Known about the structure:
About 30% of the residues lie in helices and about 35% in strands. By secondary structure, it is of the alpha+beta class. Strands 1, 2, 3, 4, 5, 6, 7 and 8 form an eight-stranded mixed sheet that branches.
Amino acid sequence: MVKPIVLILGAIPILAAIFIVVPQLTRPEIQSSAVNSEDVMTLQYTKEHLEKISFGLTQSIGADTAEVLTIQNDGSVVYSLTKNGYSEPDIKSQLSQDEFTQLKALVKETGFVDIPNNVYQVKPDASNYEKYSIQVTLNGKTVNLQWADQNASQEFVPPIITQVQSSLDGIIGEITK
């Protein structure tokens, strides 16, 4: 028979692990501890809905809508939308200090600016897809990336890129509602 003291001593590391893991699972955002006030970041994110148009023997790819999100180092945001060739009025907004710090942390702590400048090629048979591009400058280092939806891309788009994309799409959703 197992002595109660052995059970108690065995339960202590298990309880400690639970107290460490559960908060990490319920709070999935990236910690912003490495971000400091001297970090300088600017960002430009472009999202285009492209469609292949056939003119009989020739084909062309055209943008149905184009969205551009520009974020400056002070957290100011400008959102531009072009739909069917016509520009809508720009929407200007301001990110809260916490939102901007979280975005900086996402870019800085995940090593986003260390990704080599790359264009992820689109499948030749893709006819209706979203194409994205981003230019991030963090503390003087710039990265330029272009990619398409994963189902239209010939290559695997790294999750770090789609995570930043999701965060920026969330910002667009907030300022356009």
